[in-house]
UniProtKB/TrEMBL annotation:
It comes from Galactobacter valiniphilus. The gene is nrdR. It comes from the Bacteria. HAMAP family: NrdR (MF_00440). One of its GO terms (molecular function) is zinc ion binding. A zinc finger (unnamed) spans 3-34. Binds 1 zinc ion. Pfam families: ATP-cone, Zn_ribbon_NrdR. This is Transcriptional repressor NrdR. Belongs to the NrdR family. Residues 46-136 form the ATP-cone domain. Negatively regulates transcription of bacterial ribonucleotide reductase nrd genes and operons by binding to NrdR-boxes. InterPro entries: ATP-cone_dom (IPR005144), NrdR-like_N (IPR055173), RNR_NrdR-like (IPR003796).
């Protein structure tokens, strides 16, 4: 780590703390040459491999922008989208790979988006699951209906006393 003041390559760590979200480490460093202190923020790199073969850094903002299109006109807040992006990042980082395929990121979005808004889920899934026919949409809708029925509390029939 180069000192931002004198460009000396040698510094020592004075203090380390985990950042608020737990995904980074904040380190206070002191330059061995000029004795000035500076802060660094260290994160584990995560790259997304695009179809073109280009790798770019993972970005929650790109997830939010992509999902926002699917949520257009739906009752989904910016906070909901931020939470979804955080969940997707945690899922992908949980795999332990430093590089992940862009299609895998899209698939990781599906489960949290399905819980957030079913219409937005269908819009997004139609792209990432390559829906080609109306039958593809019908199958997805039927699966949503079955899941909704399974999640609904079962009501007991009223009995006469």
């Amino acid at each position: 780590m180069f000192c931002p003041y004198c460009r000396n390559p040698d510094s020592r760590v004075v203090d380390s703390r985990v950042s608020d979200d737990g995904l980074a480490i904040r380190r206070r460093r002191q330059c061995s040459a000029c004795s000035r202190r500076f802060t660094t923020l260290e994160t584990a790199s995560l790259s997304v491999l695009k179809r073109s073969g280009v790798a770019e850094p993972f970005s929650r903002a790109k997830i939010i922008n992509g999902v926002r299109k699917a949520c257009q006109g739906r009752p989904v807040s910016d906070d909901d989208l931020a939470m979804l992006a955080q969940e997707v990042e945690e899922t992908i980082r949980g795999d332990g790979a430093a590089e992940v395929d862009a299609h895998r990121v899209g698939l990781a979005i599906l489960a949290p988006l399905r819980r957030l808004d079913q219409v937005a889920y269908l819009r997004f899934a139609s792209v990432y699951q390559d829906f080609e026919t109306l039958e593809d949409f019908e199958r997805a809708i039927e699966t949503l209906r079955e899941d909704h029925e399974d999640a609904a509390p079962r009501q007991r029939p009223l009995t006469a006393r």
